[in-house]
Request: fold
Amino acid sequence: MADLIEIKVPDVGGVASIDVVEVLIKPGDTVALEQIIATLETDKASMDLPASAGGTIQQVHIKPGDKVGEGSLVATVLVNSADTAQVAATLKPEQSTQSPTTPAPTIQEQPAPVKTPEPAKAAIASPASTPVIDHSISVTAHASPSVRLFARELGVDITKITAGNGRKGRILKDDVKSFVKRAISEGVTQSGAGIPSIPAVDFSQFGETETLKLSKIKRLTGQNLSRVWLNLPMVTYHEEADITEMEAFRVALNAEKTKDETKITGLMFIIKALVAAMKQFPSFNASLSADGENLILKKYINIGIAVDTPNGLVVPVLRNVDSKSINQLASELAEKSDKARLGKLMPADMQGGCLTISSLGGIGGTAFTPIVNAPEVAILGVTRAKMQPVWNGKEFIPRLMLPLDLTYDHRVIDGAEGARFMAHIKQNLSDIRRLLL
Ligand code: CAO
Reply:
């Protein structure tokens, strides 16, 4: 059984002429009771018109630009009369349903009786009432309550949308969608994604200043880091590896080298230990698919190395690291970091990384929290090794301890897995013979 119900403009405080700003339904649409179906506007207020009945829209009687008044027909909707929950509670009893014994005519056979429930009240947003709806929204943003709600749900600060495509610059749902699309394609900037921007300050009022243009690398890195920071739930786990023996071996190896040969730094052993751990824990050599539904496991191992250059940070990638010797890795990194510092890296040199190492060990530090180079799922930070007294069960002995920091994407890596991964790296660095196993 089905009834045709008319949805009409309710009493909006005796205003005779109301502009139709936006119509959100078309014939064939299914609407729920109280779903917003149109936006109306008077000189003083804008309002969302909710459906006073839920069902399938048969006809829409208004269009943007029309003028309507109380009682104007907005739409007719076919309601399953058994479903009383789909008609506004204020529906008068005599208008409600047919006798249950009367077979319901199908639409093809005979037009259904037209019933008019008392329309649900329109949600009105006048400038005065706006702050009550959302304290964070400026009263100057020209948008209906449903568009404001839509913007809030997407985390968009509607005041950042400067001009809408609706009448008199009104912000429409499509304007909010376009704003979000733009923010995504441009990368998340300080003022995007609803995050309050940092206010501009005229520093010259406090003293002399000089303005330097950021390098392209710095600007792009900044955008990428902000995007990662906002998208990834990151955890950083700290560990220390005893590299006393490894360091002695490294020094001995370097002593054998001629002055033209590339010296080996501890980083080469760290790369090797990292690769061994990635083989043991494949979820670290993976990326989440863009929809977040799947983990893409990689069967190759390329490691990105963050290199500090005068123009900013770049990350050249060492390829197929698992099949290269320590000496090969040392020469390749020396070549790539030289190229990086001369600004000669090609885009291909920086693509295809599986995991990144950021080593500040040559500079100093005790710990830091590097940011994952997404879509990779983790990054290994390294700071300066130092001699420390370590308790061996009987006495304190001097050991060279290397601080390690692993930041991981917690959507992919669990805390325990992160800790095991680091334990594996620590064990291999503490006894590099294990890397042969
Ligand atoms: N502890 C103690 N000493 C260390 C060390 C550590 N963890 N790491 C490096 N060193 C020593 C090296 O042995 C070397 O000593 P010698 O000159 O006596 O041989 C010296 O520090 C300089 O090493 P290096 O930095 O030139 O070489 P590397 O292989 O360790 O690192 C590279 C190469 C490219 C990673 C590095 O030069 C670099 O650019 N680091 C900065 C990366 C960065 O900016 N990260 C921050 C990114 S934000 O996340």
